[in-house]
Amino acid sequence: MPVQRATFTRPLIAVAMVAVSTYCAFAQKAPVPTRVRGTIESVNGDTMQVKSRSGEEVKLHLASDVNVSGITRISLADIKPGSFIGATTVPGPDGSQNAVEVHVFPESMRGTGEGSRPWDLKPNSSMTNATVAESVVGNDGHTLLVKYKDGEKKVFVADNTTVVTFVPGDKSDLKAGAKVIAFMKQLPDGSFETNRVSVGRDGLTPPM
Questions:
Q1: Which CA distances in Å does 49 have to 43, 52, 67, 71, 198?
Q2: What's the CA dihedral at 76, 82, 85, 87 to 10 degrees?
Q3: What's the CA gap between 198 and 101, in Å, rounded?
Q4: Helix (H, G, I), strand (E, B), or coil: what is residue 70?
Q5: How confident is the model at residue 21 (pLDDT cuts 50, 70, 90)?
Q6: Using 50, 70 and 90 to split pLDDT, how confident is the model at 192?
Q7: Cα 177–184–172 angle (5° rounding)?
Q8: What is the dihedral of CA 208, 29, 50, 186, to 10 degrees?
Q9: How far is it, in rounded angstroms, from Cα 179 to Cα 200?
Q10: β-pairing verdict for 151-158 and 97-104
């Protein structure tokens, strides 16, 4: 009887090992990208071809309700207490949060994506969308205290940090050579669609 039990157990172990290996294979799949940064190569009807910053060719279907906004430079001095901003930051050696870029939302976009989360612009970067509670001017930049619904953070913005804001845009801004960041989702057939594209104005590369 013990021999029969061992014989019966072997197939179960084999099935379990296959199940575990299959699970691991799925778990190790690369995550589906949710945005692409790059240069528009062509726009043909509702299809936009983008060459990503890593050199990949990405084909995007433009949703019928695609929202297009322009991105233009402004001054660091335009960030004031009460401004609702987004800041991409990386940790400094002393633990401070140093801004890689800051974008100031127009009043109509206040509250967009409020909070702080990991970001994929640079290694260890994070994105914080929050209201400026305090701005302290130093010798080489501004230190901003920003507050959002779940907390607060101090962000150092050096004088040479890129600061931008959003301006109205439309599909006519989507043309070859334009620098964009497109937010996208994967459709059931495996293709990608975007319903939100930010376009740099005057040759600007969207810094976020």
A1: 6, 10, 17, 20, 15
A2: 70
A3: 15
A4: strand
A5: very low
A6: very high
A7: 40
A8: -90
A9: 6
A10: parallel
Rounded mean pLDDT, 107-117: 95
| Cα dist from 208 to 32, 35, 100, whole Å | 19, 11, 8
The two tokens of residue 163 are: 């600061």
State the amino acid at position 62 in one-letter form.
Answer: L
Contact 125, 100 (CB under 8 A): yes
**Contact call for residues 133 and 81 (beta carbons, < 8 A):** yes
Residue that has been written with the tokens 């296959």 in this structure: 18
Whole-number pLDDT of residue 154: 96
Q: Given this model, what pLDDT does residue 19 score?
A: 40
User: What's the whole-model pTM score?
Assistant: 0.79
Tokens, residue 91: 């940790």
Tokens of 125: 């970067």
- Indicate the average pLDDT of the chain: 88
